[in-house]
Amino acid sequence: MKLSTFIQMSLFGIKTIIFKKKDPILGTIIVTDRCNLHCKHCSVNNITSVIYPYEQIKEEMRELFDMGIRILFFCGGETFLWEDGGRTLRDLVTEAKDMGFSIVNVVTNGTFPIDLPEADLILLSMDGDKAAHEEIRGECYDLIIENIRKATSDNICLYMAVNQLNKHTVEPVCRLTEEKNVRAVSFNFHTPYPGTEYLMLSREDKAEVCALIGRMKDEGIPVFNLKSAFSYIVDQSFPTPCWQCVVMENGKLSVCGRCIDVPGCCEHCGYFFAAEYTLLFSGKPNIIFEMLRTYPGFIG
Ligand SMILES: C[S@@+](CC[C@H](N)C(=O)[O-])C[C@H]1O[C@@H](n2cnc3c(N)ncnc32)[C@H](O)[C@@H]1O
Ligand code: SF4
Ligand code: SF4
User: Fold this and answer.
1) With contact defined as beta carbons under 8 Å apart, do 224 and 186 qualify?
2) pTM of the predicted model over 0.85
């Protein structure tokens, strides 16, 4: 992470904590809900299948930038399916960088060739060992591993949504960080959109998985999560929503996540970022120290 970005983020954090401000710093733009996969745990794919136009996304970027947002994520649907008149995801990333966003990340299912060195991080979904990943996502594991190995930059962070189908395969995903081009691994727990409640972890499951992730981190696996937030995640005791995060989909701006309006989600929120950011900005010292130690090493 550049020193200027670090200072910018630190100043934002100090102002937010001292003055209890609710200004956002992290924004996500959904570029399409179209997807080539139909994962069992996912409720946000192929609802309209529209690829949002370049000009619209550019306006959304400008709106987020003007709100003070400096960390931008592109998400989907499948982000690598995005194109408009010859422009591709890479153009969106470079446009965002040119506009002045300090950190620009992309979330992908990894089934397309990965040639995106301009992104700070490519969050690549990996939902377990081959058997668990394919039970959830269909036959695509070998292709993804090949795409990781052939990627043109080492900015990949594996991204696992832990649920009832893959909770026993957290360690193999941690071990995949030894693969070329993989910088880290980051976890979420399943968030129960209606119809997917059966995939949610119990409190005991969450405690076991967090203990394992903690051991992996102690062993030196590059885990991009904060151990000091685990007890809040297990007990579901972090405040929601996260005011410092927003998501924009087709002109609609929501605080925290697009799940904000989905009944039953926030009470069982499994998104680690929501816990980590709300705890950080409420001024918890151990969260602040761990974030300062963890984040700069993984970004940029
Ligand atoms: C919606 S996908 C979009 C990007 C891309 N298609 C992918 O799979 O990475 C973004 C991330 O959300 C995760 N996800 C989907 N549904 C979820 C849920 N109910 N709870 C937690 N994570 C979920 C996916 O596993 C993926 O890592
Ligand atoms: S690849 Fe991503 S968007 Fe597509 S169905 Fe799976 S989780 Fe959802
Ligand atoms: S707290 Fe935020 S991320 Fe979690 S379910 Fe609610 S809106 Fe989604």
Assistant:
1) yes
2) yes
